[in-house]
Amino acid sequence: MTKRYDQRYFDTWYRKRGIGGAQRLARKVALAVATAESHLERPLRSVLDIGCGEGAWRAPLLRLRPKLRYLGFDGSEYAVRRYGQRRNLHLARFADFATLRPCPPVDLLVCSDVMHYLRLKELDRGLPGLADLCGGVAFLETFTREDRTVGDEVDFQARSAAFYRGRFEALGFRQLGSHCWLSPALAGDVAALELPPRVAGG
Q1: Are strands 180-182 and 134-139 parallel, antiparallel or unpaired?
Q2: What count of other Cβ atoms lies within 10 Å of the Cβ of residue 80?
Q3: Which H or E element spans position 185?
Q4: 117, 111, 102: which is closest to 171 by C-alpha?
Q5: pLDDT tens digits, the chain, 202 residues: what are they?
Q6: DSSP 99
Q7: pTM for the whole thing?
Q8: Which domains, ranges and CATH numbers included, belong to the chain?
């Protein structure tokens, strides 16, 4: 049976079960915004949200930075049909970012709670697009087999942290911590102690 990101899915996980919750999301958004602005040394202007679902990041982002441009993409036909016009959401699968370049590189690229559900072929096809489209900081919230997770386990791909770290670093991202990664464009302009130590075998 193919997993469907339909209204029932979002009602179940984001409304009935309340995975994450509004306050937790607001803290993640504030962290991502502050990290990006710290490295850009200016206010945030643009956000690209890949795998955005119903566009949950949009409202807390705009509360912090009302003038920023938010653009979201998701493979859920339901989410785009229902919220696309109001929240600037568009239909695309992760693998489409092998070639899809819908905007100039953004200040903050968000890909939250997405990559650990993707098959390897789709993940590897789309990843280079994230590096091309990020001009500041990427918030790449991804969970691994080393983590104790609570939530949707259907199609969860139990890969190691080293696997993702290797993929991201091969594209030029530099790890900042707390799911934040410095874009290839800024990777050479960072102090040594802003970065975590290299992990052996990672």
Answers
A1: antiparallel
A2: 22
A3: none
A4: 111
A5: 467 776 787 777 566 666 668 899 999 999 999 999 999 999 999 999 999 999 999 999 999 999 999 999 999 999 999 999 999 999 999 999 999 999 999 999 999 999 999 999 999 999 999 999 999 999 999 999 898 776 667 778 889 999 999 999 999 999 999 999 999 999 888 888 888 887 655 4
A6: T
A7: 0.91
A8: 20-171 (3.40.50.150)
- Rounded to whole angstroms, the Cα distance separating 67 from 61 reads 10
User: CB–CB of 68/46 below 8 Å?
Assistant: yes
Cβ atoms of 68 and 170 closer than 8 Å: no
Residue type, 103: C
Q: What does the chain come to in residues?
A: 202
Task: Return d(Cα 108, Cα 138) in angstroms, integer.
Answer: 6
The end-to-end CA distance of the chain, in Å, is: 35
SS3 content of the chain, % helix, strand, coil (to 5): 40, 15, 45
